[in-house]
């Protein structure tokens, strides 16, 4: 069974780098030992994490999660009137590390650029309505944004 896990691991790494269009370069070991990861036009990755309040029915948690993911299609660009969220995925925490700090659900949303993210956060009516609607069931929300390859 070990070879199958090694093969699956290799395929996973290849899929990750292919999906996110990473290019890696390793400098000459004699000159320097730094590794760099560069990306081209990767946009903005927006990570949202929730801890739901105790006693919230699982159906309500599922509804919140589905509504957040639906923003991918509901959020329309102000000038083109077309969806502008590149990707939206999420799910329930299943990490065996037990260091989630109470966070139970995580979502990854990707934008083409900072302008789209700014509109999403500050003006998009669908997103603003969603944010307003979850206050009664979300105990804690954390957000981390980054541009892939920018450290």
Automatic annotation (TrEMBL):
Pfam families: Dabb. InterPro entries: Dabb, Dimeric_a/b-barrel, HS1/DABB1-like. Residues 44-146 form the Stress-response A/B barrel domain. This is Stress-response A/B barrel domain-containing protein. Gene3D superfamilies: 3.30.70.100. Homodimer. Keywords: Membrane, Transmembrane, Transmembrane helix. The chain crosses the membrane at residues 6-24. The lineage of its organism: Eukaryota, Fungi, Dikarya, Ascomycota, Pezizomycotina.
């Amino acid at each position: 069974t070990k070879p199958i896990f090694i093969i699956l691991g290799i395929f996973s790494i290849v899929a990750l780098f292919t999906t996110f269009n990473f290019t890696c370069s390793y400098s000459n070991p004699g000159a320097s030992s730094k590794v760099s990861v560069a990306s081209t036009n990767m946009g903005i990755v927006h990570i949202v994490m929730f801890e739901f309040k105790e006693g919230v029915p699982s159906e309500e948690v599922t509804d919140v999660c589905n509504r957040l993911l639906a923003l991918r299609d509901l959020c329309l660009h102000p000038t083109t009137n077309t969806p502008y969220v590149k990707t939206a995925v999420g799910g329930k925490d299943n990490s065996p590390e037990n260091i989630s700090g109470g966070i139970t659900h995580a979502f990854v949303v990707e934008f083409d650029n900072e302008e789209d993210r700014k509109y999403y956060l500050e003006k998009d009516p669908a997103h603003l309505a969603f944010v307003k609607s979850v206050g009664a069931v979300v105990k804690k929300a954390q957000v981390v944004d980054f541009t892939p390859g920018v450290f």
